[in-house]
Design goal:
It is a single chain. It is built from eleven helices and ten strands. It is an alpha+beta fold and 379 residues long. The protein folds into three domains: 7-120, Butyryl-Coa Dehydrogenase, subunit A, domain 1, CATH 1.10.540.10; 122-232, Butyryl-CoA Dehydrogenase, subunit A, domain 2; 233-378, Up-down Bundle (Butyryl-CoA Dehydrogenase, subunit A, domain 3). It starts with 6 loop residues before the first helix and ends with a helix. The structure holds acetoacetyl-coenzyme A. The site of acetoacetyl-coenzyme A has 23 residues, from α4, α6 and α11.
Length: 379
């Protein structure tokens, strides 16, 4: 067992760390406040190869491994978790899904611009009545010659307003349940597709989350990913990798909380001592660091299994389940260490808590992760 990172992995981590400091740190708080999408930063992330990190060089991706992706996601999310989720959806759900299951024509047309940051992608599975119960797809895609006609509503779609390309799951055969769902690549400009509502959120406020309405939206058969009926499996397989991305985002938030806690505890005095001199603070910091280390091991293990083409679904679920809890707990402790200053916006540590909470919800709630883990253990 080797715990060393390669030189490339370390270089990616350092590049992401520098980028986060130079391009995100100053603006993250204000963008969060104003709910502003980081268009410029996302463009620059694309130029760096961070929007298609695991896409092969054939499609102008960075051709990196999942471990490098984890390290980059941590560094970006440490400073700006909104940017983290934008990056994660594009990398794990859209680029991965297309490269793994798309046709050569689809990859040439869509994957290259997505991997280079010219296009941004979104993944539309959730619906008003299909969150955790994802097979309950009400959006329909009815075949009409060389086209499908899509009707329905998708909600809580990350990147939905800013995306150029959306991977949409829709029912092509209601009677077949999970086996009657298909996936389509839908260009944002397709007539009949509209952004219906932008959500106002507790956290990750600088990312956009919208509902999308499809009304007689005509999509070419050539834009279907895989066979008719493959859509639910496509979504599940793609989300397995997505959960590694969200675990890394959660880790980044937890690491940011730990860094801020250490810094503040060495600066702030109470009762004539630095907070760092009190055991009450030391124990919090020790617990945070230990849990972060454990969550990182789980996340890196799932990433390594994915890189080795071995089954990783259970480990990705474990990583997300655990890392998201670690993020919420670390953010809470960080606020506690900061006392009243943690509760006000000026110190920006309250953002960690608001951003951390969603990691227990999207890409499968913690309850769904437990279902995935338990099914694997009990089968
Ligand atoms: N890989 C391959 N196939 C899988 C799979 C996987 N990981 N998980 C399930 N399947 C297959 C099953 O084997 C089954 O196929 P067969 O009938 O051929 O055996 C089929 O899919 C249906 O699966 P289930 O019977 O397990 O379906 P279920 O209704 O019991 O649901 C669930 C299982 C795990 C709860 C699933 O619905 C789920 O993961 N729900 C959560 C959805 C989710 O994560 N949504 C996130 C939205 S995207 C997002 O959040 C992005 C963002 O904005 C950041």
């Amino acid at each position: 067992m080797n715990f060393d990172f390669t030189e490339t992995q370390l270089m990616i981590r350092d590049t992401a760390r520098q980028f986060a400091q130079d391009e995100l740190a100053k603006s993250a708080g204000e963008r969060d406040e104003k709910e502003e999408f980081p268009h410029e930063a996302v463009k620059k992330l694309g130029e760096l190869g961070f929007m298609g990190m695991m896409v092969s060089e054939k499609y102008q991706g960075a051709g990196l491994d999942t471990v490098s992706y984890v390290l980059a996601m941590e560094e970006i999310s440490k400073v700006d978790a909104s940017c983290g989720v934008i990056m994660s959806v594009n990398n794990s759900l859209v680029c991965y899904g297309l490269e793994a299951y798309g046709t050569e024509e689809q990859k040439q047309k869509y994957l290259t611009p997505l991997a280079t940051g010219k296009f941004l992608g979104a993944f539309a599975l959730s619906e008003p009545e299909a969150g955790s119960d994802a097979t309950n797809q009400q959006t329909t895609a009815v075949r009409d010659g060389d086209y499908y006609i899509l009707n329905g509503t998708k909600n809580f779609i990350t990147n939905g307003a800013s995306a150029d390309i959306i991977l949409v799951m829709a029912s092509t055969d209601k009677s077949a349940g999970a086996h009657g769902v298909s996936t389509f690549i839908v260009e944002k400009t397709t007539p009949g597709l509209t952004v219906a509502k932008k959500e106002k959120k507790l956290g990750i406020r600088s990312s956009d989350t919208v509902s999308l309405a499809f009304q007689d939206c005509k999509v070419s058969v050539a834009n279907r990913i895989g066979d008719e009926g493959f859509g639910f499996k496509f979504a599940m397989k793609t989300l397995d990798g997505g959960r590694i991305g969200i675990a890394s985002q959660a880790l980044g938030i937890a690491m940011g909380s730990l860094d801020a806690s250490i810094k503040y505890s060495k600066e702030r005095k109470a009762f004539a001592h630095y907070l760092s001199e009190f055991q009450a603070t030391q124990f919090k910091i020790a617990d945070m660091a230990t849990r972060i280390e454990a969550a990182q091991m789980l996340t890196l293990k799932s990433a390594s299994l994915k890189d080795a083409n071995q089954p990783y679904s259970k480990y990705a679920a474990m990583a997300k389940l655990y890392a998201s809890k670690v993020a919420v707990d670390a953010a809470l402790e960080c606020i506690q260490i900061h006392g009243g200053y943690g509760y006000i916006k000026e110190y920006q540590v309250e953002r960690f808590l608001r951003d951390a909470k969603i990691t227990e919800i999207y890409e499968g709630t913690s309850e769904v992760q437990r279902i995935v883990i338990a099914r694997e253990l009990l089968k």
